[in-house]
Amino acid sequence: MSKGSFLNASVGRKFLMSITGLFLIMFLLVHMSINLLLIFDDSGDLFNIAAHFMATNPFIKIIEPVLALGFAIHILWSIIITIQNMRARPVKYLKSNQAVNSTWASRNMFILGAMLFVYIGIHLYNFWWKMKFAGDPLLEHITVMQAGVPVEMENAYALVATLFKESVIYDIVYIIGGVLLGLHVSHGFWSAFQTIGFNNHIWRKRLFVLAQVIGAIFAIGFSVIPLYFLIKF
Amino acid sequence: MADVILKKIYVKVWRQNNVRAKGRFETYEVENISQGSSFLEMLDILNDKLIREGKDPIAFDHDCREGICGTCSLYVNGRAHGPDRDITTCQLHMRKFNEGETITIEPWRAGAFPVIKDLMVDRTAFEKIQQAGGFVSVNTGGVPDGNAIPIGYEDAEEAMDAAACIGCGACVATCKNSSAMLFVAAKVSQLAKLPQGKVEGKRRAKAMVAKMDELGFGGCTNTGACELECPKGISISHIARLNREYLKAKFSD
To answer: The pTM is what?
Structure first.
């Protein structure tokens, strides 16, 4: 198989988008599940234990660069594909009524993606950068009883909860981020299956409905956390 | 049903003298059009008026005028084949329009479909894709006896549904990426489901996708617009099959 021609072909490029997209959705499911611990335990112990586990687990250490690569490919290829697609129509329509034949999210995946890119930048600076490199006084080590054994760990809960308790603007940014992600996934999920060829006239309806459900879960799951802190504190 | 007459409508139409010329929109008044007349008849009446006034009539493609030849095109009020489902432009009627309305008519817009004149576009690109692999070249022998080669009902139906494609180019015209995936998918699918076509399935999918890319069509982003604007209602499930055929062929290389 000649790799060059495959990755330059329209279907090949889309195949990469699909595989990386589905991989990112799996990551997001794990990410969201752990995040939700933020709202189920106001002492922060549950979230801290989970964050500590993720930070020290060797498997996560291996998967981290793969995840970064997944993001990089998904983003770079989306730019290549979008430029190629825009070139295919040099003269635009004066009047185009696409609202009747397709969903808004499906037509604006690149714009949604670009907004999510900005959001991820903010998000990484808020938490990931501080936990991994810069450090923050809020992260000062605490001791949490884990299965009867005291374990020393970073207070990740304090960093996250303080941001959400103190800044209404960040709450709103994170709520919008969650909704944008939901919209992106509501098309991306079923579209990925279509592109890798796993679809037919029966599965199509199922996958489309499933994509809406997963999109809604992401939108609600991620937005509910800043919303919780916004309302409760 | 009593015939309703549209006393006056406005037609805003793309005029372009030839492939190289720069085009422009011009608006014409058309009077006394029966709502029972077809859209193309309305254009005939307008052209008749233009000719009488010594002006250049509007060039547009049309042939059978019964929705089977795939010659007519036109992007009417922002939609391929106009504001209706499962029809070609020649099957569009003036009852879809209102008194005093301005109807915008544009040619198919795609780099791979250059405008020849006014509303006529060159769809040779579709022929080139077909020539790249949309055929069966193995010896299939003479006419087989009835039921000698059993083909399942579902397979036969799906192949026939794909074969309904008339190659009009509405899928390309309506796709935000000017992608020809629905066309290619239909042409691959109509053969992939049948024993005669299966033999060359891998080569066909690869060759037709490569040709489609080479001719400058965009990629598919699964918006599904093509399926809804396709006059034959060809399903994007066929695109999934094309992807499957293509990926299988590529990974077995």
So the answer is: 0.93
